[in-house]
Design brief:
Layout: E1 4-7, H1 14-25, E2 29-31, H2 32-44, H3 50-57, H4 59-74, E3 81-83, H5 92-98, E4 102-107, H6 110-119, H7 132-150, E5 153-156, H8 161-177
Parallel strand pairs: 1-3, 1-4, 2-3, 4-5
């Protein structure tokens, strides 16, 4: 069974769109970051956010945990709508896993995304030796080609969530007829 996976940069709306899409399609929804936090809590005996996990253990530890959680999630027999973190697409092992599913790249206005990100403060994956806007732009440019190459379709989440959901449903209907 193929999952529907929404990839894209942090704060483009993958989780919000994913939740609405799962309701529209009557499919379960999984936010990979929430699953990571749950797995971490069970292993370590304490709840930490993804940001706190990176700060405590480093980015490599987090990416390893993220890949493990993604792999186990994709092994589930019931199809889900899945929203992984923005960096999941940058690892080769994850790219290989994603190829077997329906992948939709969710994007949004770059300036608005930066503003949304900075509301919570500098993310743990932004390099500390760069100004936040410089790091953001560099990482954005690094990731966009990978998102595009993995995705079957790209949607812009710049209007209302319902519009994004309708566009994805239309794409899914087209894919099913092929």
């Amino acid at each position: 069974m193929k999952h529907i996976i929404l990839i894209g940069f942090k704060h483009v709306g993958k989780s919000v769109v994913g939740q609405a899409l799962s309701e529209e399609l009557n499919m379960p929804f999984l936010d990979i970051d929430r699953v990571i936090e749950d797995v971490y809590a069970k292993r370590e005996g304490g709840m930490l956010s993804c940001r706190q996990i990176v700060e405590k253990h480093g980015l490599q530890y987090f990416r390893d945990l993220e890949s493990e959680v993604l792999s186990r999630t994709l092994d589930q027999r019931t199809a889900h709508v899945i929203a992984p973190g923005g960096g999941v697409a940058m690892r080769l092992e994850n790219q290989i896993l994603l190829q077997n599913h329906v992948v939709v790249h969710v994007t949004a206005d770059k300036n608005k995304v930066f503003e949304r990100i900075m509301v919570s403060g500098r993310p743990a994956f932004f390099p500390k030796d760069e100004e936040p806007i410089v790091g953001f732009k560099r990482i954005w440019e690094e990731r966009m080609p990978m998102y595009e190459s993995l995705a079957h379709h790209t949607i812009s989440n710049n209007t209302i969530v319902a519009d994004s959901v309708r566009e994805i449903v239309s794409v899914l209907e087209l894919v099913q007829t092929l």
